[in-house]
């Protein structure tokens, strides 16, 4: 391919809201056969809203809201916003710690508060009563993302938050298929929620990679590469950066322009508007560009 033609191709792409780090990237884009889509913030809006609260409502909301107010995770923002809407100002948190892919912890009004996945709470020595486990499972079956709220060593409530699938995601998935690219869904979220989202956009359950911890996302991409696939990954979060870079080694990393700087820096291509249809478009543009040249 001539450098001039590649430049024309990247110019065309940029008019479509696709920013390519270097014209040579068009070459690897052409060979992609698998596209791993991060769920939250990529396939979905990533703007979650608080839907349900179980346990002693005001207390659960006040303590969980105070800790989540210090986190930037979409779940955290939904919880903090929902708590403030009901209770006004939230108390202060000290010793806030974010545990990627697991939850958050901190001290509020003298209580050590943890909010996150039930398995992580158990690992941390928290007692999770059967009623809480049941409430959590019930919420997840409806397609919500549910987190457990614990303080002073006992789980005491469940918060369910909901995210909406972007209006353009289903079309993006079907266009990928038309291009001969296999779309897969990757998430740290639970399987029930992940499959509900996958169903909505037309990805079969066997192509859903759920409950993958942030540090394992890279391995999932590497495993697919080991199977001989040329993998592109689309993501938005800090948690996706390593996997995006890994995908870029043999295939392609694509970041949502609406996502974090870390994801954008780790990627070869930025989809400026966050419309997932730009992912199949970038493949179509690079194929068209290279066809003209060859
Ligand atoms: P995704 O891969 O969908 O972007 P993450 O890896 O960020 O999801 O998070 C995976 C899971 O870890 C969440 O579904 C939730 O159970 C838990 N989690 C992560 N961050 C938080 C938080 N701030 N508050 C509560 N739970 C959290
Ligand atoms: Mg994400």
Automatic annotation (TrEMBL):
Compartment annotation: Cell membrane
Give the family this protein belongs to, as stated in its UniProt record.
Belongs to the cation transport ATPase (P-type) (TC 3.A.3) family. Type IB subfamily.
Protein name per its UniProtKB record: Cation-transporting P-type ATPase B
